[in-house]
Amino acid sequence: MATTVWKGHLTFGLVSLPIKLYTAARAETISFNQLHKTDHSRVKQVLFCQAEDKPVSRSELVKGFEYEKDRYVVIDDEDIKKMAPKTAKVMEILEFVKQAEVDPVYFESSYYVAPDDAGEKPYALLFQALKQSEYVAVAKIAMHNREHIVILRPSGQGMTLHTMYYEDEIRKTEAFRTDTSLVKEKEIGLALMLVESLAATFDASKYQDTYRQNLRTMIEAKVQGQEVVAPVEVQQTKVVDIMEALKASLAGLKKPAAAEESEAEPAKKKRVSG
């Protein structure tokens, strides 16, 4: 079982149940070390005191908040712990909303929610209530020195929790808008046909991080002393006429019936001659 990142009680109304949170996903990437160019030895970062002009160890560090230019107040870990709200141990459901009303731009990190000892029945009750009502729960929780607003939703055989950004953390811009008057009904019709032709049931296993795979291939080639071969670059065609581009896209996705029949005919003759 994965490491528990939070442990406490989840409450809704007068119902309370003990739960645990586990990290649901994490980004995978290729990590590199910093080396000295001349001899390829590892280097390390040195913490340096500007006032005393000398390096310092991590044991000599404290947290500080700059309240004026170059003026700091020291904050220790005990000060921070004292400020922890009640949500540090109790996650309270504030309301239930329709998931479609929540813009995914607010989603930050994902966690699996599991019942702790003696919490199985109320956990199952909430899971079934969310699943059948098609609502998600909005709650508050404090962890990692932050109080988060979160969404709880039924997922597969259990509940998933998503921490969310607050309203003032979302970067809104006037440039983010759409002028729908620019497109014509015929163009929308062709675009919908293209969407339908590419429609499929979502399967996450179909998608792979080709950049990470290319990096691994390149690293392995270097380890073996082989020549590094760059992947073939995809050539982008310049869109001149959007209608023609849509028509060409649809044509490329579906073979004409005549072409399919001409390909099938030799196969039929071959079976007969056999």
Give me the secondary-structure topology.
Blueprint: E1 4-12, E2 15-23, E3 48-49, E4 54-55, E5 63-68, E6 71-75, H1 77-82, E7 90-98, E8 107-115, H2 120-133, E9 135-143, E10 146-155, E11 158-164, H3 185-198, H4 210-223, H5 242-253, H6 257-273
Parallel strand pairs: 1-7
Antiparallel strand pairs: 1-2, 2-8, 3-4, 5-6, 7-9, 8-11, 9-10, 10-11
Helix pairs in contact: 3-5
**How large is the share of residues in beta strands?**
25-35%
Tell me the number of strands. 11
SSE-based structural type: alpha+beta
Global geometry: extended
For the report, how would you describe the main beta sheet?
A: 7 strands, mixed, barrel
Structural Rg: 28 Å
Strand arrangement in the largest pleated sheet: 1-2-8-11-10-9-7
Q: Count of DSSP helices?
A: 6
Mean residue pLDDT: 86
CATH architecture of the domain at 4-26 and 83-169: Beta Barrel
CATH class of the domain at 4-26 and 83-169: Mainly Beta
Summarize the amount of helix as a percent range: 25-40%
CATH topology of the domain at 4-26 and 83-169: Ku70, Chain: A, Domain 2
Low-confidence stretches: 267-274
Please report the distance between the alpha carbons of the first and last residues. Answer: 59 Å
User: What is the string of helix and strand elements?
Assistant: EEEEEEHEEHEEEHHHH
